What we know:
By secondary structure, the chain is α/β, with parallel strands linked by helices. The protein has a single domain (15-295), classed as NAD(P)-binding Rossmann-like Domain (Rossmann fold), CATH 3.40.50.720. 41% of the residues lie in helices and 13% in strands. It is built from nine helices and seven strands; from the N terminus they run αβαβαβαβαβαβααβα. The protein has helices at 15-20, 43-54, 66-77, 94-108, 131-159, 179-198, 224-229, 242-253, 284-295; strands spanning 34-38, 58-63, 83-88, 113-116, 163-168, 204-211, 264-267. Strands 3-2-1-4-5-6-7 form a seven-stranded parallel sheet, sandwiched between helices. The chain is globular, with a radius of gyration of 20 Å. 44% of the residues are buried.
Amino acid sequence: xxxxxxxxxxxxxSNDDLAVHPTIFAAGLxxxxxxxxSGAGSGIGRxxxxxxxxxxxxxxxxxxxxxxxxxxxxxxNAREGLQAAYVVVxxxxxEAVDAAFVEIGERFGGIDILVNSAGxxxxxxxxDYSEKGWQTVINTNLNxxxxxxxxxxxxxxxxxxxxxxxxxxxVNQGLYGVAHTSAARAGxxxxxxxxxxxxxxxxxxxxxxxxxxxxxxxxxxYSEQARSRYPRTNPMMRAGSPWExxxxxVFLGGPGGSFINGETLVVDGGGQHWGEVWTTGKPEYYAxxxxxxxxxxxxQGG
Length: 302
């Protein structure tokens, strides 16, 4: 039986990899457009920034750490014909977000596409969350995304320019151990669906991309046991790459998605239909039940 474990191309991990990694899109697809990508110092955001720049867009990346942003921008600008800049912004702070949009407006005349890739979480059993831990994740993943979305929409309404928003969220299947981020991202999806209707008269589209198990630098926060099992959480039996999510973001946010609005595109290798994701390891309570199933036995009274 032929498996699907081998990805179509090696996973790009460095800026040099991202500069040459194959893409399905035609050169110049985003020419003349300005794309703002949050959380682009690494992972999915960085891959999206590279892809947009290679497709002809002027790219602005945002995040909290100037050194990480500068490294990406310098690498992009070192390639002939590519354009990138960065703004330091903490999306949890509305004043910082507003200031970032003012700066981008003054320097580049505004944006055409916003990709909200910034976020963060830590693996922990939901029963053990502290108030501070819960609020931190909600403020970043839900409130921060809201700040970015509304700031972009207000700018577009004021100028009559219109634009497109793509929010990177999470799959609904599994993800036990990070219930706080699942709750926050579910809020983003719900808001995006409503905003897609309310903001359509302004020429604004709003969509989401929901990645499954994607191999990024963020995997480091999970245990080695959890990481080793992630590739087997979907029927394709492999992890996805940031580049695969970047291409989904460009498709939805760019001209290919021009009649797609208020949708969530799940990119998880089919994991939502089969599989479990335990970020903190599978509890014995459930592991025992799985062993019974795998061994062909029955539970007591079954």
